[in-house]
UniProtKB/TrEMBL annotation:
SMART domains assigned to the protein according to its UniProt record, in alphabetical order: S_TKc
Lineage: Eukaryota, Sar, Alveolata, Dinophyceae, Suessiales
PROSITE patterns: PROTEIN_KINASE_ATP (PS00107), PROTEIN_KINASE_DOM (PS50011), PROTEIN_KINASE_ST (PS00108)
Name under which the protein is recorded: Protein kinase domain-containing protein
Domain called Protein kinase: residue spans: 204-454
Entry binding sites for ATP: 232
Chloroplast as UniProt keyword: no
Keywords: ATP-binding, Kinase, Nucleotide-binding, Serine/threonine-protein kinase, Transferase
Gene3D superfamilies, alphabetized: Transferase(Phosphotransferase) domain 1 (1.10.510.10)
Organism of origin: Polarella glacialis (Dinoflagellate)
Domain of life from the UniProt record: Eukaryota
Entry annotated with the keyword ATP-binding: yes
């Protein structure tokens, strides 16, 4: 290391053993004086196995004083060193420095490679997690909120047969219990199906009679001390009344629709100290039947204004409820559709609800062809005791429409070309429902669609007129 321009070089080597000539654990001071060009080399061993080698070169006469203070083991090389030994020593220093530089470079390379590899592994892991999350999201149905921002969503109904479940039906294995009108067995079924109401859960109000008829009376009551209900109590205990009441329970258990009176359950009631009888507990509708509602509209002189729109809304509700009944499996035929069996909830707009399923039946090919219903609203095939089906209810609904727009009802077909606007369209729907041949009449899906079209057309016409 005698290259010109280099005056001081300090090299630190870890864990290097250096041979020593003399060893002492003292503080040592060495002074060397010369009058000629002299090279002084001093070597000291530092604690912790660290060797510090300092080389100073001078080109003129000088006095060099070197002071080495140490409290550890110090190895001192004799100052009388030959030129060949100095060359060997310098060569050893250069070799050691090169080896150290190679080691440092190798360690740095390994450290750098480890960092790069770790970063690459993290990136690959993040990419894999993102791909897994995307695949999982593709298998999960999107919510309505997602559909609003990310596009359309495919939603479809799955046939229960794929899970080995039989075709769903309104009928159940307990149907024979209701056909026999066995009071005890009906109550047992109600307890098992959780629709039998305990006496402690219901309180009737005998002073609040909502209606009466050949079947018995309907009184207002309170269910669970918070819900107003209507209790239908038979007053006679003949086989016909029992059969109709049991038939209503049988059907009401499976019917859930906003335009059909809700069935809360059944309970035991006693009137005037008589025998206990099974009574229906139904939704209490705040308002009268459709006949009373229309009579009030006409008496108040408001039918020509808002009354027509309200009447149309109620007819639309009835068509919606009948569409539901005719879409069940098997189909439920009401067979006594008339204004008295349509309740009107007094709200704005009003809501129509179908009630009284005492004469209703499942539509079957083996259905006994009895004459059932109210004569003026009865379909010709029912009156003639021919085979009848869903078209019989459509005919009765046509009669209800005619009664709504005219306020009267006769056995013969009633229609008038003097109707305008909404009433004219309702009259056209009624005429299609009153076809003599059942197969020519529309079904309730078509009737409901036609009534809905009336709503859209009326709204468009009203808007155009106001503009």
């Amino acid at each position: 290391m005698t290259a010109a321009g280099i005056t001081d070089i300090t090299v630190k080597v870890i864990s290097i053993s250096t041979p020593t000539v003399e060893t002492a654990v003292v503080a040592t001071t060495t002074t060397t004086t010369t009058t000629t060009t002299t090279t002084t080399t001093s070597t000291s061993v530092i604690p912790q196995n660290t060797v510090t080698i300092t080389t100073r070169t001078s080109s003129s006469t000088s006095t060099s004083t070197s002071t080495i203070t140490s409290t550890s083991t110090v190895a001192v090389v004799s100052p009388a060193v030959s030129a060949s030994d100095e060359h060997v020593l310098a060569k050893a220093l250069v070799s050691s420095a090169g080896s150290l530089l190679c080691c440092v470079s190798l360690c740095f390379g390994v450290w750098r490679w480890c960092r790069v590899r770790a970063a690459r592994n993290r990136q690959e892991a993040a990419a894999g997690a993102a791909a897994a999350a995307t695949a999982a999201a593709a298998d999960i149905p999107k919510t309505i909120g997602d559909a609003a921002t990310e596009g359309s969503v495919s939603v479809y109904v799955v046939d229960p047969s794929v899970l080995g479940v039989a075709d769903p039906s309104v009928e159940s294995c307990s149907e024979g219990v209701f056909q026999s009108s066995d009071l005890v067995n009906i109550m047992t079924t109600g307890i098992a199906e959780h629709w039998f109401i305990k006496p402690s859960d219901i309180t009737p109000d005998s002073k609040s009679i909502l209606g009466s008829g050949g079947f018995g009376i309907v009184v207002k009551g309170m269910l669970h001390e918070a819900t107003e209900v209507a209790i239908k109590i038979p007053t006679r205990f003949q086989s016909q009344e029992e059969s109709q009441l049991a038939n209503e329970m049988r059907l009401f258990r499976h019917i859930r629709h906003s335009n059909i009176v809700l069935f809360h359950g059944a309970t035991l009631m006693r009137i005037n100290g008589g025998s206990p009888c099974l009574s229906l507990v139904l939704e209490w509708v705040n308002g009268g039947n459709f006949g009373e509602y229309m009579q009030q509209l006409r008496s108040n002189g408001v039918f020509e204004a808002d009354g027509q729109a309200f009447a149309h809304k109620i007819l639309l509700d009835v068509a919606r409820g009948m569409t539901y009944l005719h879409k069940l499996t098997p189909i439920i035929l009401h067979l006594d559709l008339k204004p008295a069996n349509i309740l009107v909830e007094r709200s704005v707009p009003p809501r129509g609800k179908i009630t009284d399923f005492g004469l209703s039946r499942f539509a079957r090919n083996s259905l006994p062809q009895h004459k059932v219903g109210t004569e003026k609203y009865m379909a010709p095939e029912v009156a003639q005791r021919k085979h009848y089906g869903p078209a019989a209810d459509v005919f009765s609904f046509g009669r209800v429409i005619i009664w709504t727009i005219t306020g009267k009802l006769c056995q013969e077909l009633i229609s008038s070309t003097s109707f305008k606007g909404l009433l004219q369209t309702l009259d056209e729907v009624a005429l299609s429902c009153l076809e003599e041949e059942p197969h020519i009449r529309p079904n309730f899906v078509q009737v409901y669609a036609r009534l809905t079209t009336i709503t859209t057309t009326t709204t468009t016409t009203t808007t155009a007129t106001s503009l």
